[in-house]
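Rotation project, supervised by the postdoc (A.L.). Task for the rotation student: set up a whole-complex structure prediction and record inputs and outputs verbatim in this book. Inputs entered:
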Amino acid sequence: MKTGTIKVDYLARVEGEGALYIKVKGGKVEDLRLRIFEPPRFFEAFLRGRHYSEAPDITSRICGICPVAYQMSAVHAMEDAFGVEADGQLRALRRLVYCGEWIESHSLHIFMLHAPDFLGYEDAFEMAKDHRAVVERGLRLKKAGNEIMALLGGREIHPINVRVGGFYKPPASRELLGLAEALKRARDEALETVRWTATLDFPDFEQDYEFVALSHPDEYPFNEGRITSNKGLDIAPSEFDEHVIEEQAPYSNALHATLKGRGAYLAGPMARYSLNFDKLSPLAQEAAREAGLSSECRNPFRSVIVRSVEVLYACDEALRIIDEYEAPDRAAVEIVPRAGVGYGCTEAPRGLLYHRYRIDEQGLITDAKIVPPTSQNQKRIEADLRQFVPHYLDLPKEQLTRRCEQAVRNYDPCISCATHFLRLEIEREYRARDDPGGFRHDHRGPAAARAGR
Amino acid sequence: MARKRKKLAVWKFASCDGCQLSLLDCEDELLAVAGAMRIAYFVEASRATVKGPYDLSLVEGSITTPQDAERIQQVRRASKYLVTIGACATAGGVQALRNFRDVREFINIVYATPEYISALDTSTPISANVKVDFELQGCPINKRQLIEVISAFLNDRKPNTPPHSVCVECKLRGNVCVMVAHGTPCLGPVTHAGCGALCPTYDRGCYGCYGPKETPNTVSLSAWFGGLGVGELDLVQIYRTFNAWAPAFRLESEAHENRDDQS
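Outputs recorded:
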């Protein structure tokens, strides 16, 4: 397809509502937009006036797939504002619940959302007809992650046991030990998954990314560390606002983030992995090497291997934490609210998640700012597609569309997050795709629709 | 002779995706569900879409934009049974907090160029827009209850989802009452069962994420909260979370808001 438009009105197998529009003329990409029509929900606005203690439960509702990430960034930001630290086993339990979310979220993406692209199926259900053992393995891994969240958090989605200062009720040692057997099996299956993802076909596509992720001197990052990049960025979470600019694009309900004076950057598993390879467990490092990865991964299609390496690491790390666990003597550290500003930056499965709160003397939130990973990656996804599409213009439109969708799914975009974002449209001529329900819906607002044409 | 499989559709409106994820979280049952029903429309899980009509539509999310207000009508027309899943679809969700305020003010806080954003003044439940055949409450829904609802509709029977309070579930679990024993305010007496009394089991008060039960006595509960030292403003906030626009919770929060104005 040398001239034409690719339009995907409703991107499938991503979390939330987005579209893709690519206009090609004479073998060149003329226009390209990843548009998010997910309705905005205004979290930053209604957080104003709420009590600081409500932030973890309220912000978890931004995303059903990574609620723990929201809870973690919220509690760390609040603790930063109040000058307290949840350390020792409380800190370890937070890492453990995050391991659960990474295992669950990554397994969902690897097997249910991303794998069908590589194998040419519409979904995991169809894939299961030919590859039942693979899909079942994915579901078992996913379940192992969910079991960690259900035990520590009460339930998998929107856990109820996380609070500012620690937990409501930390688990007893014997309860955690109950997870160990399932996690050992999960670790074996995660290793098989790394080997299996390495056998998939990958287009030869490497980009010179600026990777941005947390780095911590002693460990693979979850909750703490400095925000670093492979191109010299090295800042504390409190400096985020000075370095990251959020802009609104007329065609999207999600804000786009860029690094001041440097442009688009990449957050997420590839960035974390490439900046922190030496902090992975020996087992995860060895599996990555065997799968053909070096200590840096610059091919976004290979992110499926990186995710499986992270699942393996998370199983390993969870087992380490369980092995060293002793129930803490108190469920949470004491909180005395005071007026101030707090910053929290943690590693959601999809990347850096930034929270900032201003709190008054009564402990009420007067201002909130939340920057999820998908808004940070949005510009980078568009940049990838601009580079990627010209190489595949010989493909028929249907195949090109699939390839573009896959390139978007490389990022595991989370649209509910980004609007607190995806529809693919590539243009030969405008043709409304038959709508599944026998009807056509245009989710764009009038202004966005005008701007989108 | 093979029986024709019924068609299942999953629709999303304004939401966090957690309730539809609950279906994918049924790791042990998922492939069986996909075998028993034809997954005809489920964008989060599949590229493939099959035209309607659908035998069962699960609807997640609330109505917050003019486009979605139109789309839900189309979903209704294409569906034999329409079941709402979760607090957004059933009560308007946490985003219904805008209903108590001026939405333009909200847009101005979040977006630098507000005119690009198209949003209704209110976030409303699906039942305020179209006829709903069954509502499954919870933020998020309970996945066991979801399987129960799907199998009930598959077999033309009524879903068995007890309408009693979280209090009853708490007693069944043998928990010590957090309100009586620890003086912790707990919405368990007025909140719909389904979670299995999770919060009290983890030593915290219920925060009402399953929404009001049938005939909740919120007035009495608020009086008890008052006795525990909960102020009027806090009472307003307690009822205004994930089910703020559910009538019982809405009326109770407004009652305390007005009292606060008079004092």
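Student's summary: Confidence is low (pLDDT under 50) at residues 420-453 of chain A.
Supervisor addendum: The CA atoms of residues 92 and 204 of chain A lie 39 Å apart.
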